[in-house]
Design brief:
By secondary structure, the chain is of the alpha+beta class. It contains 7 helices and 11 strands. The strands form 2 sheets. The chain has a 7-stranded mixed beta sheet, with helices on both faces. It has a 4-stranded mixed beta sheet with strand order 1-2-4-3, with helices on one face. β3 and β4 form a beta hairpin. The longest helix has 15 residues. The protein is globular. The model has no long low-confidence stretch (mean pLDDT 95).
Amino acid sequence: MIFWLNDDATTLPDPRNADEEGIVAIGGNLSTALLLDAYRKGIFPWYSEEEPPVWWCPDPRFVLFPEKLKVSRSMKTLIRAGKMEFRTNTSFAQVIAACRSMHRPGQDGTWITDAIETEYTRLHRLGYAHCAETWQDGELVGGLYGIKLGNVFFGESMFSKVSNASKFAFTHWVQHLKSLGVVLIDCQVYTEHLESMGAEMIDREAFLQILARQAEL
């Protein structure tokens, strides 16, 4: 049974009650309070512009443990070449805008709505949302953004304007997060791209137990 939220909701129900698709609730808002409650519970919003917010917690969950990151030989060569530069949190608005505008094969439109872009930029100003960036010849060519709570990073979206730019940012970002003590990176739903870099499926219950210990506001 899917839970319907009031427009002024500030909390979400237990994600263990999600339906078979992983939908926990529909409705509500994108306030800071509700978004932070969502991530603390392992729930994320994913919906189209014309829809009310849809809140998800799929089972199983696609995650990456930082120590299991796989860095390919070609990526190691690219890093050694020194043609790309890694930065963090210097251009959040540009990163989320690029993620929003990126064409993705087989995907009609984007789930990064006006409200998503506005509220996640607000979360960045509050210190919860972060971005990793790849720069080349003075231009932002790739990157990703997401939410960090305690020792967990919740990845949201990435983009690449040149070959391997998003992988470059992701590789450096995972290594950076590991140095900060992050124990889990939430990748949300399966992609072959991230599986090749070490991401794997785990049971939702195992995921939620890690959050209970590691995701602090």
